Amino acid sequence: MFHHLQGDSREFYDRFADKYDVMISDKRYDADLPFFKSFFRRYNVKSILDCSCGTGKHVIKFAQLGLKATGSDISVEMIKKARRNAASLAVDASFVHADFKRLADVFDRKFDCVVCLGNSLDHELRERGMLSALRSMYDVLRERGVVIVQIRNLPKLVEEKKRIFPIHFHRESNGDRKLFIYVLDFHKSRVTFNVVSFLEFNGEPKFEVNSVDYRIVSAEKLESLMTKAGFKGLETYGDFEFAAFSNNKSQDIIVAGAK
């Protein structure tokens, strides 16, 4: 059976919510924590908003650290999954359906820290959309609070022209298999990520392709947009181990800034 599903980011994540946690290892979230803890100590963070929370795994980790943790996402299905994930671990965290360009319309309080992770900001295919999202994060951040934004270093992928990336292979206890592969299409100002899924349920195979677009944004451009949004004292890293950012080597672009 074959399905090719294409749409905007909201539709993509609604369709992918039940498969996302299989594709992403929980070890990733634990490995990221020392990076966040450093900023939490420096900025005395007690409350945090993950404004592109997906299935809520980072929010759950933050809540387990003792923070008042909130997650929001544009995908209703991701929010439902996040709530189930938190409930399964008896974790006290709240999840709200919200567009990260309009956070102040949903939240009437300020947060000590706002994070936007997992290349979510790049779903805004126009610069004005990205700037609107960053200004929205600024609006719900307390004075002298901190924002942390992570996107993929897409200019590096474009330069390398590597199109196929194995992501994850998973075998269920009943023998069913799940294999996920990225296949990239490069365009002038964006990259299409095609997530190829080979799924097996009760021995019956299923093949899907889910597609979503990302805007190609450099570290320099992200820094410029964050400065326009009002953030100061920007720090840019190439990974969650505080590596200096390199245009040619870093897989990620991570920028932290204060209000």
Walkthrough of the structure:
This protein has two domains: 5-153 and 217-258, Vaccinia Virus protein VP39 (Rossmann fold, 3-Layer(aba) Sandwich); 157-214, N-terminal domain of TfIIb, CATH 2.20.25. The longest helix has 16 residues, at 27-42. It is built from seven helices and twelve strands. The chain starts with a strand and ends with a strand. The chain is α/β, with parallel strands linked by helices and 259 residues long. The strands form two sheets. A seven-stranded mixed beta sheet has the order 4-3-2-5-6-12-11, with helices on both faces. The protein has a five-stranded mixed beta sheet with strand order 1-10-9-8-7, with helices on one face. The radius of gyration is 18 Å and the shape is globular. 32% of the residues lie in helices and 36% in strands. Helix 1 runs parallel beside helix 4 (76-88).
Helices and strands in order, then pairings?
Elements: E1 2-6, H1 9-23, H2 27-42, E2 47-50, H3 57-64, E3 68-73, H4 76-88, E4 94-97, E5 111-116, H5 127-139, E6 141-152, H6 154-160, E7 164-171, E8 177-186, E9 190-201, E10 204-215, H7 219-229, E11 232-237, E12 252-258
Helix pairs in contact: 1-4, 5-7
